[in-house]
Design brief:
The chain contains seven helices and 16 strands. It is of the alpha/beta class. The structure holds coenzyme A (COA). Coenzyme A binds next to strand 14.
């Protein structure tokens, strides 16, 4: 119990530090449903570890009714997790969350529906996940990463990266802007269509060169794209 009280004090201090809207410790204690959900989780996780699975699950549902945040009692969550606003947040059973993580409303740390065993993500220390972002599957989001609002992340993310988009791709790594040029890595239908068009243009240029009997003045389009791609480090 004393440990729980010191965690509660620490959680309130965390909100005071991270949320400019927080005016007083009493306000944070009374009004931050993200904290209430985390405190429920601490008790539920203890119950889960005592093999009181049903009662742990039941209390996690009660917490969901009260806070709008669903944290499975089997998840492993570090210290100073701050769930801001919180409504609609879902944290799956095999999720691991490090210390000093921030989640905004509507975040899902979920499974893809295709895996068994460890099927939810691992978020390392200091990760910030923007509103509505979905991080799916047994992947690792490295230390201090920022996941943009509305992103869908399906692959491991190296530490100190910023990821946005659907599917998620890196826009900053180690503080440096990353230019996204490789359609295969972004792996969305529109980019694939652009890659197909670039290949087709190359073929037409070759054919034109044959018919006109002169050499193409520029390097093939797809090859020049490849040159740009090889110089960049953007994979996640
Ligand atoms: C991802 C994020 C952390 C990036 O912030 P940043 O480092 O300041 O980056 P910028 O705003 O300079 O954006 C860089 C580029 O990414 C794009 N981008 C930023 N956030 C994006 C997002 N969520 N989805 C898609 N693209 C995004 C910007 O349009 C910009 O593109 P451009 O350079 O081609 O114009 C931030 O935009 C974000 O989404 N934060 C989450 C905030 C949140 O959820 N708040 C909820 C409060 S209740």
């Amino acid at each position: 119990m004393p440990h729980l009280l010191s965690l509660i004090r620490e959680d309130i201090s965390t909100v005071m530090e991270r949320d400019p809207a927080a005016k007083s410790r009493l306000e944070v204690f009374l009004c931050y449903s993200g904290l209430h959900a985390v405190w429920f989780y601490r008790v539920n996780h203890w119950l889960w570890n005592q093999r009181l699975f049903l009662i742990g699950r039941w209390f996690s549902q009660v917490a969901r009714w009260l806070t709008g945040i669903e944290i499975h009692p089997g998840a492993k969550i570090g210290r100073r997790l701050f769930i801001d606003h919180g409504m609609g947040v879902v944290v799956g059973e095999t999720t691991i969350v490090g210390d000093d993580v921030t989640l905004y409303q509507g975040v899902t740390l979920g499974g893809t529906g295709k895996e068994h065993g460890k099927r939810h993500p691992t978020l390392e220390d200091g990760v910030v996940v923007g509103g509505g972002a979905k991080i799916l599957g047994n992947i690792v989001v490295g230390k201090n990463c920022r996941i943009g609002a509305g992103s869908v992340v399906l692959r491991n993310v190296p530490e100190n990266s910023t990821v946005v988009g659907v599917p998620g791709h890196i826009i900053f790594r180690e503080g440096k802007r990353v230019i996204i040029t490789d359609p295969k890595q972004i792996n969305d239908p529109l980019s694939e269509a652009l890659a197909a068009v670039a290949n087709e243009v190359d073929k037409l240029r070759e054919r034109l060169t044959e018919l006109e009997g002169s050499e193409a003045s520029a390097s093939p389009l797809a090859a020049s794209m490849q040159g740009i791609i090889e110089d960049l480090d953007y994979q996640i």
